[in-house]
Amino acid sequence: MNEPYSPTRLVDAENPVELKGNTLGLWQIVFLVISAAAPLTGMLGAVPPAISLGNGAGIPGAFVIAGVVLLIFSVGFASMSRHVVRAGAFYAYITAGLGRPLGMAGALVALMSYTFIQIALYGLFGFFCTVILSPVLHTAMPWYGYSLICVAVVQFTGIRGIDLNSRLLGVLMCLELGILLLLAIAIVMHGGGPNGLTLAPFTPEHVFSGHLGIAVMFAFASFIGFEATAIYGKECRDPKVTVPRATYVSVMLILVFFAFVTWTIVCAYGLNDVVAVATKQPGDFWFIQSGKYLGGAVTTVMSFLLLSSIFASLLSFHNTLVRYIHALSLEGILPQALNRVHEKYRSPYVASYLQTLSVCVLLGLFIAAGSDAFNIVFSWSSALGTIGIVMLQAVTSFSVIAFFRKTRKDTRVWHSFVAPLVGGIGLLYIGVILVRNLDALSGSDSPIVKSFPWIVFAVALCGVVIGLILRKKRPDIYARFGQ
Predict the structure, then answer these.
(1) How many C-beta atoms surround the C-beta of residue 339 within 10 A?
(2) What is the pTM of this model?
(3) Which end of the chain is more exposed for a tag (fewer CB within 10 A), N or C?
(4) What Gene3D superfamilies does the entry give (predicted)?
(5) For the domain that residue 137 is a member of, what is the CATH number?
(6) Given this model, what pLDDT does residue 16 score?
């Protein structure tokens, strides 16, 4: 039942080309998933509101807490990846542990969540292009003009194979990490700000001050994307070893990097002033210190790297969604034509075109409604997507426990029970915080925003109903799902 994922049995006889296997190594997968997390975008976008609305100077501790929760989650997630090698990681794991109806619910929620996160990023890309590029190009192009150009570039690049994508994302990731690290090192070398280099931001006095839950919520949103390690199992070398290692390495790198960089920026402003600046000047929060320590030229480079960071995240999420669509078509849930693989690039090109089309349709609806790129397209879409991913991760944790209790394939108590249980409870708690503070996460108290948890629930319920219908009407497809 849980043999390694092998599409050769299900691939279209008229198109027997498969995904390019044995292509990705450890660091290539790490590049793919950290690019999805978009470190530069996360730091510039999430840190100021996390400080002003959350726990102030204790923000580095909030990133540590979020990272530790995800590390614990990763224990069960990585253990599962050694036994269930599937392209549709979340829904395959849920299917293996909790059954096909809930697995179908997981598939629909994953598709919806990643799609809206991608929509959010296209809105963000368009918004920052109007701020950064329009003055340089002397153009009044609306935000969606830039967004649609980016859609075309992502499609062009995404279809050209995962090996090229991973190399490109590796370069972009190093650039955005490098500019943040350069600023952090400059702050350290100059001894910090008013309070010097102090470890006070990591002490309980500051970490647990203010609204820690809101700070952890924003910190957690900055990690979204790391869980994509498992979807590349079919295309990586020795997936039962590489995927678990890539998962741990990705979470640890994001955790250490975010904690270090946020610690230096708090030290640069000082414990008493950091909240005031983050509240009054959130858009310039990082650029002020960059101008002070690195100069105007490097600060300009940082602004352009922000665009490349968003593009890298978009390309990474495009690859994630395409592989979900490809996996579902192989299993008969979606039309068989979507499993076609490009003869030259060995990429699921039809699924790629469908993913791009779905993005264009949703962006078109926002454009037709005259939606604001930042306050609506980005803020609302990212909030909806984040809720879905957090709930998926929580359910996945509990499915790990169920899977190992049924199969006894891993009898280690920590890996098969304790860590998944603790991780699942922690993720559920973060999910509750998200729901309670949707206005802070989305920047709106609109009734539409308040309905987001119900939308996620409705999509999941539709998945369960589809699963039950398939069990009765199409037992052949039902038996194949998640396998």
Answers:
(1) 25
(2) 0.88
(3) N
(4) Amino acid/polyamine transporter I
(5) 1.20.1740.10
(6) 46
